[in-house]
Amino acid sequence: xxxxxxxxxxxxxxxxxxxxxxxxDLAKCLANFEAVDIVVAPVFTSLAAVQEMIKGTAIxxxxxxxYPEETGAFTGEVSPLMLKDAGCEYVIIGHSERxxxxxxSDTFINQxxxxxxxxxxxxxxxxxxxxxxxxxxxxxDVLANQVKGGLANxxxxxxxxxxxxxxxxxxxxxxxxxxxxxxxxxxxFIRGLLQGMFTKEVAFATRILYGGSVKPSNVDGLMAQDDIxxxxxxxxxxxxxxxxxxxxxxxx
Length: 252
Hints:
It contains eleven helices and eight strands. By secondary structure, it is of the alpha/beta class. Helix 5 (about 105-120) runs parallel beside helix 7 (about 140-150) and helix 7 (about 140-150) packs across helix 8. One of its GO terms (biological process) is gluconeogenesis. Keywords: Cytoplasm, Gluconeogenesis, Glycolysis, Isomerase.
């Protein structure tokens, strides 16, 4: 069985002091909680502080992004090796905000995934359609292109360390959430794509998270779906009480 994962993407929030406080609160309540893989992704400036607070607990550290080079003249960027050195086990790649605001392509995202894996990091590949793409009937084509482009040149062995996060863009930070059925439909489609690209075993073993206004009031229904293996959470990850409730989800 796939182990559930609840990952908190803090985005551009929390000073170092605030990040210490939040991660400290999470560590107190979730230090030995092993039923779910717990991941937090603070801003780069808070990675060391958060790692100090969660060290020795069940909580894992993630970077919010990386650049597909180890070193060099790339001002303002952070390499996968540097994230690994800072204590990260995971890295979020291809988030819709970066795809939209910074125009990151599937090719560039694929380069990041390959370099992250080479550095020993586990990528969380984000994919998802916009509202216009969904309404135009292009959702499945968009998801197929993002999955195939993002995972190009990867082997079945690589996939053991890859997590996919389906995040419909129209549900991120809007308060709108895909219904349980809509989310399950997309997750099932993605798993089918993985079977076609790799093997049935890879498709079954790969964790697919849902992201898009996940909160304590809707997490239980989402987690009851057969192909939803967890959540990549934005706003609800910024309050310890809310995030702890997500980690301790209850299937109906």
